[in-house]
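User: Here's a chain of 329 residues. Predict its fold as tokens.
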Amino acid sequence: MKIRVLTQIGLALLLLIGVSGSASAADKVKTVASFSILDDMVRQVGGDRVEVVSLVKPDADAHVFSPTPADAKTLAGADVFFVNGLGFEGWMERLEKSSGFKGKTVVVSKGVKPLTMEEEEGHHHGEEAEHDHDHAKDEHAHDEHAEAGHDEHEVTDPHAWQDLANGEIYVANIRDGLIAADPEGKAVYEANAAKYLEAIAKEETAVKAAIATLPPERRKIITSHDAFGYFGSAYGLEIIAPEGVSTESEASAQDVAKIIRQIKQEKIPAVFLENVTDHRLLDQIARESGAKIGGTLYSDALSGPDGPAPTYLDMFRHNVGALTAALSS
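Assistant: Prediction complete.
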């Protein structure tokens, strides 16, 4: 009888270990995320079953990122490569080829309805028009046409994560990508994703409630580069940027003069810096227009662990706090 009871206890412990989803370092799914926001999302869904390395680090700019031989070596040893797509990682295809990566690339924006924007000639986002990824081409062929440099200069806006509803699509794609790479972890990934999706939905409710407190005439801001189109569209803010979709773009003197006139005419109350861009242009606009600097927004990268936006949801909490503080008074 004692042996039978001990056997049952042992089986129960094994089941508990399986449900927890923990794995030894050797057994973990090796994943690479293209930038810090995806790094956090993969960690939330993967939990202890995954090892995650971010190529573009916190507070770093993916627009001007240049992969190193060490990055190629890291990717070569990975099972899954999580990328944003939508033309965000102009360096991605070259890195995959040079590294000899044999794993699975997961485009987390698959299923997102992309926004487009007008951009001046010569302000294309990195080298995406030439080097966009095969997977992104399969999923977003019409976006490639938009980025190819036609007369309208219409480009795809890649910053889809700035709408939390799109963040939910990202999470679902990350979950499915991990399950495909590690079927034994299916229950863990599904449970973690469900918990994370609930937290994202809760945060979206809070964002909408916070923006709703602002007077309609004050829901206008200037940002240092055009990374908040999805945020503005989803939550009812008018976003004006002196630069194009890429931080590599430079605003002309005519652009700056036009924005200063617009700030004065429309009484735009605040301009915001971003953690990945140079503050000098916004300082000039604020100085010459009379608008106040509303603080720093996190757009393309999280902060470090000790900063105000170390996770995807913390980024929204910080950004909405900065926006409402500046625009409510």
